[in-house]
Design goal:
Helix content: under 10%
Radius of gyration: 13 Å
Number of helices: 0
Largest sheet: 7 strands, mixed
Strand content: over 45%
Distance between the termini: 37 Å
Shape: globular
Structural class: mainly beta
Length: 122
């Protein structure tokens, strides 16, 4: 099982980024995918997830600004991030589990990709 997160970078406050998570080695359309982030000195935080049915969840701090989506044919999940704030600066990770339901809890997920750094700064 491999998960490859990409799309991070430096963006100004108020800007946008799209993160991608490409999956291989497992049945993508039967799995839940989560996005997490970890800022320096802080615990890993669940920010969004999508179930195998397409249901999604968001942590309150990103509701209305971030949107999760998936392309089953491409075995990929995306995180559209708008109106970015300096406090969104973190390493972002995607994770997968062979469950239908998704969760914002890190312990829900068995498979993790490497992180991609998002820096929001002027």
């Amino acid at each position: 099982v491999q998960l490859q997160a990409s799309g991070g970078g430096l963006v100004q406050p108020g800007g946008s980024l799209v993160l991608s998570c490409a999956a291989s080695g497992f049945t993508f359309d039967g799995s839940a995918i989560g996005w997490f982030r970890q800022a320096p000195g802080k615990e890993r935080e669940g920010i969004s997830c999508i179930s195998s049915y397409g249901d999604n969840e968001y942590v309150d701090s990103v509701k209305g600004r971030f949107a999760i989506s998936r392309d089953i044919a491409k075995q990929s999940v995306y995180l559209q991030m708008n109106s970015l704030k300096p406090e969104d600066t973190a390493v972002y990770y995607c994770a997968a589990q062979r469950f239908s339901r998704c969760s914002l809890l890190p312990e829900w997920y068995r498979f993790w990709g490497q992180g991609t750094l998002v820096t929001v700064s002027s």
